[in-house]
Amino acid sequence: MDQVVHSFMTKHQLIDRHQTVIVAVSGGPDSMALLHLMNKAKEKWAIRLIAVSVDHGLRGEDSAEDFAYVKRTCEEWGIKFVGTTVDVASYKKEKALGTQEAARHLRYEFLAKQMNDFAADVLMTGHHGDDQIETMMMQMVRNVRPEAVRGIPVSRPFATGRLVRPLLCVSKSEIQAYNSQYLIAPRTDPSNEDTEYRRNAFRKHVIPFVKGENPKLHQHMQAMSERVREDQSYIKKQAEEVLGIVQFSKELRKSAQFSIETFKTFPLALQRSAFHLILNYLYINNTEDISYLHEEMFFSFLNETKPNAELHFPRGLTIVRAYDDMMLSFQQEDFNTAFHQPLPIGETIELPNGDLLSAEWSEECKSEGSHVFVCDSHHVKLPLAVRTRRNGDRMRVRGMNGSKKVKDIFIDQKVSARARDRWPIVIDSRGEILWLVGLKKGGECTVGEPGLWLRLHYENKADT
């Protein structure tokens, strides 16, 4: 087993000469075999070796005896030992976590501290090939997305260095044989037999069958894990280019917006990866509630022909399709969308969403733009007001005969259904729609004629 593990470490560059290496040791078969193996190899690698153990206190005297066993063995083998006891019960209650999750948090917190205290380069754990099989089999059961079946990484950044797993290349039976060969008598944890834990159930009922079909399955699974990670790393890098078309908010309430047609020009595999990268941004990498069904819902939503629609995801994420525009956001409006307020001449008012609208008299017909409205004063009946749309609204559009439904104007201009409900409309005292702000203008405007002119100016807060 020594040569297999050493070759695996060399292939993946898990350690270098003269590094400080910490081994996480529980007293069980896997970590004890790893500690023994690294102790034999420390002169070859010229490494500084430290054993770290955490007593979780979950099994009373048995936990304490495990801890004492590791400490005693380190003294016998001449290995520096550091250990601690943690209060899992209190931490579990404080953080509202499960027992195993709370124990893991505290364990890795202490390991990270030792990495910092010793300026260590490497943290080693005893995960082995059978653990890899269990993990990937469990991922296959829970997920339909191939990229989710990645297994346990050989190496990843951790604290001051990297967390590595040199035993992923060997099986549980090989580790047991190693311990027997070197007369290592590890401690056993009875909770590993409790099949109420999903992993234990897989270990007891699933793994023996699949390994009976293929005794080298751990090697195949490890090769698969490495290949999937390499492939996904490349796809993710390519998918990050897709994010170049996405506008991400810089506000506290996160959102993402993009053109549907532009998004669809990328290959479907990159669309899928980009979709999950967007969700990682919005959910801050906490996407446990997202399943393949949500992915299917999103892509069905992306490709439907209905111009205005909404889709709702877990924890309040709303996805809005408005013609070619797709918006993913947690943001909720802080105001009632319907409003009606006076627009006095000579004043500037603030609309509920923070936009500004001003009215004034002018002695000249200044050039108009999409945010400026000018009309003859004698065609306007004061006072003016600004409001949101109402059922049956119609307006006489400047330059057209007859009137047109405001609803149809919104559709023609591809205004999203959500935006229509808060779109500002300027009316006079007769209820005549003078200006569908930024879209269509009514009222009379005979350019070049002398007289007094009504001038309205709209200022979007997003432009300020």
UniProtKB/TrEMBL annotation:
Predominant subcellular localization, coarse grouping: cytoplasm
Key words of the record: ATP-binding, Cytoplasm, Ligase, Nucleotide-binding, tRNA processing
Gene3D superfamilies according to UniProt: 3.30.465.60, HUPs
SUPFAM superfamilies per UniProt: Adenine nucleotide alpha hydrolases-like, MesJ substrate recognition domain-like, PheT/TilS domain
Catalytic activity line of the entry: cytidine(34) in tRNA(Ile2) + L-lysine + ATP = lysidine(34) in tRNA(Ile2) + AMP + diphosphate + H(+)
Keyword Nucleotide-binding on entry: yes
Residue ranges constituting the Lysidine-tRNA(Ile) synthetase C-terminal domain according to the UniProt record: 384-456
Molecular function via GO: ATP binding; tRNA(Ile)-lysidine synthase activity
Annotated SMART domains: TilS_C (SM00977)
Statement: the UniProt record of this protein carries the keyword Secreted: no
Compartments (UniProt record): Cytoplasm
GO CC annotation: cytoplasm
Gene Ontology BP terms: tRNA modification
InterPro entries assigned: Lysidine-tRNA-synth_C, Rossmann-like_a/b/a_fold, TilS/TtcA_N, tRNA_Ile_lys_synt, tRNA_Ile_lys_synt_N
Annotated binding of ATP, by residue: 26-31
Function as written in the Swiss-Prot or TrEMBL entry: Ligates lysine onto the cytidine present at position 34 of the AUA codon-specific tRNA(Ile) that contains the anticodon CAU, in an ATP-dependent manner. Cytidine is converted to lysidine, thus changing the amino acid specificity of the tRNA from methionine to isoleucine.
Domain comment, as recorded: The N-terminal region contains the highly conserved SGGXDS motif, predicted to be a P-loop motif involved in ATP binding.
Sequence similarity: Belongs to the tRNA(Ile)-lysidine synthase family.
Protein name: tRNA(Ile)-lysidine synthase
Source organism: Halobacillus locisalis
